[in-house]
């Protein structure tokens, strides 16, 4: 019986591509020397059945397609210079729905100051949007260039979208975050010269921490610093869900996860929450509110691999 | 009854996007000022059921995904600098097939000297490959900057792939061209400073001529210069197909269609075939072998619109 791609999982498939290409430096985007600076480029594809909740409007589908790509630029501290849009749709999609998707893309491009510079359309059995975000950065912020003793911080509350996916019939901060996440492009540019490393949270904090982890380095996160509201715990509980699991292992936050020295933190003028620190423990851990320390599992949203 | 995207057709959908974005200058690629030169960028998506003939190997799917994008760079005379790959696959696709696709991509990247700099994988109901090709060019070759009296030429025989699609059980020049078209990246760079305009032939010569046509300009193509072999006519005839229809209205050639002054043609050191000239007739015409002149119909391969 031959091995299927679902047996390997998305991360392994990507590892295969990287292992066979000497020109890929795995970070949030590609970095290519260009003239006297660097071209920052990234491409992400959104599949309707995978990335768009059932209650997501066509407008928000378009908006999100830009957001997920701009978020990678933000993670590098890049300045956006252009967005390319390739969109495939079922032939019986209503033209008005197509126009709504395009309006969402254009609104997001305006919001993020990234001009739409190219487009292509196609036919497929469901809506598939592939976006390419291009940016420029003289000294891009990589994902694993942190130092022991650095503080770990995020640009905003995490876990909101994860809860929102479970509440798709209500209009609240959780659902809104799941339907219209925002990329932190301005924050990324302001972090560029102050932070020691950055990445964006797409598959959950736990997943990203393991993505950036280097040998001999560890991370200690503090539950009490995660800003988990009583309401969040109550709603999770009512739904029979583990609130920490939602916070750490689902993702779709699009907040920036960054590391920074204490000195530089004082100079930072964006909104942020310090959530932990870089250690030399070689493990990824969480200090719970009750004081106990537990290992954070390397588990996040991943295509194919059933959880 | 609401209008569907199939009622409008691909060209109309793209026109909607362009009309609503002030930053798109419609040519083969986007051209963005970057430092002291120009970033050339393009994104094309290939859908298995639409772009890959049933007999196409996984390797050739990957190769073609690079080819269609590099072909747009070639049409601008750009030097390739990087390729981004986003690929979605059914979860029960065999890993070996996935690896073959990636090998095809890598082989094409090596062939075209365009490094693979980024990759992403996803799950979808069929194989969908979205590629982004990035290049650099100080003075890109646009598609409609021709002059009256310019000669019209192509970098190689057209119509081969079109016949190949009808012969998918045989191994010959037509089938090979349909399964593994080649982008003319080297030729594009050599044309950059000599040609007056260029585009690549994807939807058929007729379609491209109408794409580049400006008011008060016309094109006269000569059937006898198209290099149509007796064999081509025989096979078409045997299949009950109009050989001129195959030559002009199907596409997938990926040859460059360019215009050039007689003086500059003498300096050109690439393979080419002169097929006609730019006139002031304001129409697109073909002089048949028998001497009669007929209007070339504006008809090419287009998603959704049934022919």
Task: Provide a descriptive summary of the structure in words.
- The structure is a homodimer of 307-residue chains.
- By secondary structure, the first copy, chain A, is α+β, with helices and mostly antiparallel strands.
- Helices cover 34% and strands 25% of the residues of chain A.
- Chain A is built from twelve helices and twelve strands.
- In chain A, the strands form two sheets. The first copy, chain A, has a seven-stranded mixed β-sheet, sandwiched between helices. Chain A has a five-stranded mixed β-sheet with strand order 1-2-5-3-4.
- In chain A, a hairpin with a 2-residue loop joins strand 1 (30-34) and strand 2 (37-47).
- The first copy, chain A, is globular and about 55 Å long.
- Chain A starts with a helix and ends in a 12-residue tail after the last strand.
- At the A-B interface, helix 1, helix 2, strand 1, strand 2 and strand 3 of A face helix 1, helix 2, strand 1, strand 2 and strand 3 of B.
